[in-house]
Amino acid sequence: xxxxxxxxxxxxxxxxxxxxxxxxxxxxxxxxxxxxxxxxxxxxxxxxxxxxxxxxxxxxxxxxxxxxxxxxxxxxxxxxxxxxxxxxxxxxxxxxxxxxxxxxxxxxxxxxxxxxxxxxxxxxxxxxxxxxxxxxxxxxxxxxxxxxxxxxxxxxxxxxxxxxxxxxxxxxxxxxxxxxxxxxxxxxxxxxxxxxxxxxxxxxxxxxxxxxxxxxxxxxxxxxxxxxxxxxxxxxxxxxxxxxxxxxxxxxxxxxxxxxxxxxxxxxxxxxxxxxxxxxxxxxxxxxxxxxxxxxxxxxxxxxxxxxxxxxxxxxxxxx
Length: 320
Fold this sequence. Notes:
Strand content: 5-15%
Number of helices: 13
Largest sheet: 4 strands, mixed
């Protein structure tokens, strides 16, 4: 039991992308690479005199026949998706522009700027983030401290604590929480839960026989990651991890059922027997989550499964 729990925790941590508060620096780093290729720009594109690209319209198309082509036809025909992207459009351009401007701003700060200590801190952090030589020298050593609690997990309570602490930090969880207006009672807030913890994302990738090659390759990837982390018997551990995820995927509702709010949504007044997973140590998990954040208490808290309006990938909660 102990080994299984540790294995589950390990892949939850290793396979997840940790939220470490450096996303903006990663964006700047990405644009640093783009800058080397000459594609970096901090100059915004302007459309006409009031921000609408009339030149992208195809006025040969009758708007009643195809409104999209009427509005965007010429732009679609003349636009090439960049080789390193799967899609392209105005929002992607705005994101790239913001990241380029961020990089330009960060690069202008100096670590020895005594007159602006906050800028100096940012400059020091950015320089450390960009120091590839130091990262190579450190190798995996910085992960040892992060992985120590995972290796030490020996009970469901330990697992619940790790999952709770992963919110806004290192790791991941079988359940992803979030607070929003209640879908059926908009005068109150509800704590929504969505099922998480599947490395391949969609249940059908585990359950449909045609995806067996992808599952096999994913298992190899898990073994590779565990091996890099110094986990004993990584191949055997990876097999157990994929078996666990396959079982968890079978407990998800289907994507078609996710479109029904009644099929994917239920609620309870607390995290006990009426919760999405009665065997989950909800009190332990919640305490660990609250220890990482400060929030205004809700006078009428509710526990509820993730609503179907959030999409098929977020639907349902497992009975793990």
